[in-house]
TrEMBL record:
Protein name according to UniProt: SusD-like starch-binding protein associating with outer membrane
Places the protein is found: Cell outer membrane
Domain spans labelled RagB/SusD: 377-479
PROSITE patterns: PROKAR_LIPOPROTEIN
Pfam families given in the database record: SusD-like_3 (PF14322), SusD_RagB (PF07980)
GO cellular component: cell outer membrane
Organism for this UniProt entry: Chitinophaga polysaccharea
Family designation: Belongs to the SusD family.
Residue ranges constituting the SusD-like N-terminal domain according to the UniProt record: 37-232
UniProtKB keywords: Cell outer membrane, Membrane, Signal
Signal peptide per UniProt: none
Length: 523
């Protein structure tokens, strides 16, 4: 992965705040008195925080491995050894205790991002007003809002992955002398996230001053979308953790209000004349900066951020990717056959059939009717050596929050509220907007009344159709408690077996840490 150049000033200043208990090596800095003196310094620091977040989520396919590889071989088939090891097969079956999975079990690098943001929030009020190009109050609020959003996103990722995690919100002036810290109760962590997002929302506007930054720079809507996810997680997983439990309705209603505010703003979502979105405009969503985007990682080739090793490129082969006849990954049978079947029966007689015209089938699959369709949701390829068509890079931004996710969460919320008819109507409209033909009731929604669980199953299926390879389906399944992930049984779920174990290295010199209960004695 190529990266934006981040000055040594930022790196050394930030990493000097790392704590022993986070398994980071503290570094002295000689720049403390010269840095943090202007708005420009803060913008450089903010660029460093974004680079750190991007690196943490994308290195070694962290985002897609946890969010998508965990769905199992029915969705992703690992074909080629050079890019993969036994660790990847272990991820597919939930064996997080096995060797070579340290990158997933160790939270240390995420705390480097957190400690960067903590230092920024401490130094920002001290920057002189006369160094700001425009209004210093507005300038400070904008930087603070983005910084709080980044910190909140990282903590939410840690919360969903590990449960209780150390809560650190201030930089440490003396990291060498600092003693190890224990994990903080998840209820306190989630409340800190929500408090930070409240503050971030008060700092940012709903609109973008520069349209080219749409999605890659968080605004108020980005904050609200993340906050809605946090409320739903707390409602379903933290407050009512049993697999059989229904969610806490107070938090569900808070998430609902946030989503409705974004929907009613009219600032997001693709145009849908006649109730159907245009497939060409829809395909552009996965390049980046569209009206679908609420937050995405900027990973464009022109700015040295393209990826030559991110998971989506490993599905590509000729003729999409030159000189590649045998890709490392291919789609499992369930992805095509269950989500985008080739022929859809719509009538009582065998001859009453139509081809599946779902625009996602055309946008996501090349040679959809062939024996081995290619997954091309992310396939904007640029060759570093164009004459030889060699050294390919993906020139697609990586989506973390988008409008379709909100619409699907809206249906989920309607089910929790007991508004089953409304949820069904919203699901039907969503499917029609993608030009999905009415399918038979054995697999898809029919006109018959649906139960609470059946509707949630349908919504989870639709999330898989829409959001596959966006790094979140595993966490959606944990929240919605659908058993969509085959190895996450209700029994394992009730032992918090959806959480990852802590890497044994984290316990070195930290007697205060304890292992997640499902993994005690297993690692």
């Amino acid at each position: 992965m190529k990266r934006i150049f981040i000055t040594l000033i930022i790196t050394t200043a930030f990493l000097s705040s790392c704590k022993k208990m986070l398994n980071q090596e503290p570094k002295d800095t000689t720049y403390e008195e010269k840095f943090w003196k202007s708005e420009n310094d803060m913008k450089k620091a903010l660029a460093g925080a974004y680079a750190s977040l991007r690196s943490n989520l994308l290195d070694q396919d962290y985002l897609h491995n946890l969010g998508d590889m965990t769905l199992g071989s029915e969705y992703i088939v690992i074909q080629s050894a050079p890019y993969f090891s036994n660790s990847d097969w272990n991820l597919q079956v939930g064996k997080f205790e096995m060797n070579y999975l340290d990158v997933f079990r160790n939270w240390s690098r995420f705390y480097s991002t957190i400690l960067q943001t903590n230092l920024m929030l401490q130094k920002l009020p001290l920057v002189p007003d006369n160094t700001f190009q425009d209004d210093p109050v507005k300038g400070r609020k904008n930087i603070a809002g983005q910084t709080l959003f980044i910190r909140s996103y990282v903590y939410f990722q840690l919360l969903r992955t590990f449960g209780d995690v150390p809560l650190v919100t201030t930089p440490d002036p003396n990291p060498i002398a600092n003693k190890p810290l224990a994990r903080t109760d998840k209820n306190l962590v989630v409340q800190q996230i929500l408090n930070d997002l409240d503050s971030a929302a008060n700092c940012l506007d709903m609109s973008y001053e520069v349209e080219t930054t749409r999605g890659t720079v968080p605004n108020k809507a980005s904050v609200m979308a993340l906050q809605a996810q946090v409320y739903l997680w707390r409602a379903c997983v933290i407050k009512h953790p049993a697999f059989e439990a229904t969610p806490d309705m107070d938090d569900v209603n808070k998430a609902s209000a946030l989503i409705e505010a974004i929907v009613n703003s009219g600032l997001y979502g693709l145009a849908a004349p006649g109730g159907k979105i245009d497939s060409i405009q829809y395909a552009k969503v996965f390049t980046g900066n569209s009206r679908e985007s609420l937050f995405e990682l900027y990973t464009r080739y022109a700015y040295n951020e393209g990826s030559n090793n991110l998971m989506p490129i490993k599905f590509l082969r000729t003729p999409i990717l030159a000189k590649t006849d045998y890709p490392s990954l291919k789609l499992g049978a369930s992805y095509v056959n269950n989500l985008f079947p080739r022929i859809v029966q719509v009538g009582p007689n065998p001859e009453d059939t139509v081809t599946n015209t779902d625009i996602r089938r055309r946008v996501f699959l090349y040679d959809a009717d062939g024996a081995n369709p290619i997954f091309v949701k992310y396939s904007n390829v640029i060759y570093n050596n164009p004459n030889q068509q060699a050294d390919p890079y993906l020139d697609n931004n990586v989506t973390l929050l988008r409008y379709a996710d909100l619409l699907l969460s809206r249906m989920e919320i309607a089910v929790y509220k007991g508004q089953l008819g409304l949820a069904y109507s919203q699901l039907r409209d969503f499917r029609q907007s993608r030009n999905r033909p009415q399918m038979d009731s054995a697999t898809f929604v029919s006109e018959a009344p649906l139960s609470y669980n059946r509707l949630l199953d349908e919504i989870m299926t639709e999330r898989a159709c829409e959001l596959f390879m966006e790094g979140q389906l595993y966490f959606d399944d944990v929240r919605m408690k659908r058993s969509f992930v085959p190895w996450l049984t209700p029994s394992r779920y009730n032992q918090e077996g959806f959480l990852l174990p802590l890497d044994p290295a984290l316990f070195n010199n930290n007697r205060l840490l304890v292992q997640n209960k499902y993994w005690a004695g297993k690692i």
